[in-house]
Phytanoyl-CoA dioxygenase
Amino acid sequence: MMLQRCRRDVVLLSTTKAAIDIDEAKATIANQLEYPYAVVPNKSIDRNRSSSSSSHVHEDEQTSEEWVLVAAKNLERYGVCALIGSEEYNNNDTRRTTQDNNNGNNQNNSRESIIHHSICNRTNQAASSRLSDLQQKIINRGDDPSGETGGPFRFVEVICRDEGGRRFDMPVPWIGSVEIGMPLSKEQTNAMTEFHECLDSIVRPVLNALWTKASNNEATSSLSIAAAGFLMNQPGSKSQSWHRDGPDEGYIDVFVPLVDLTEELGPTQLLPGTHDMKDVDSLNGIHEDELPSVTPLLQRGEILLFDYRTLHKGLGNTSDNKSRTLAYSVYTNQSPVDIHNFPDALTLEFD
């Protein structure tokens, strides 16, 4: 049963298939400080355990649960939806964005966690140790593991995605998939499997609802994972340009911060509704201030879902010494291959 404070889950950002009502959408965001979201009730999942143990979605709260339908509707309409915890944020039930943070209202830990903090912490440690292992392999090759001097690099196991060597993309295998490249350690595998199982139990009902509706209530084909991994945004990174992750329909990005996000850590900024704009891969020819953006400052373990085609960018990390680790996965009901972001590359396995 949804709590009454979820009555505004469907955020009134006016969009159509052809274009965005820019003035109305800008006014909505400016006045209400909201972004498309759905509140996951406390009882929907045992957040202290992964779904591989006794954790499960309750029988009376499966895909017909209201929060699932709200999330699917937001994804369909705006191409963006955050899944957030169910504790009250404040008396007005607004959601924290960068404007709140600029005003000094940093209210992390004000909501119930979705993926338990202990799971996030173990996964964060596993990701950090994995990056260290890979960077040592790069050193063994005689190369710069930061990418700062030699420029961006690409291996099967890790990709440096900026000129300054401060932004790393580290693909990892999903549950049950075949490992390619340098194997994970046992500890890394255990932590990431626990995390992926917990994440999948929350995300899969939403995407089943989204794609069942899109196919006129016909049964959807099995969901699969096109990619999974971690994005490491280190101090000194620069903001990215607006971009889409790909042009194809039927792919959903899933981002989970493993630390509480603040503006200085470089959260993800998105342009709701741009998934339905045709032939737009960037903001070329479009003034940035003409489109309303949202920058959800999620807590550790909350989940950001957005359409592969939604224009977005990672902001720069302006903190002095704190990295932002974000887990990602790409769900699809199409071919489970992401060639746009992961072309062929060398492996570090034998270095």
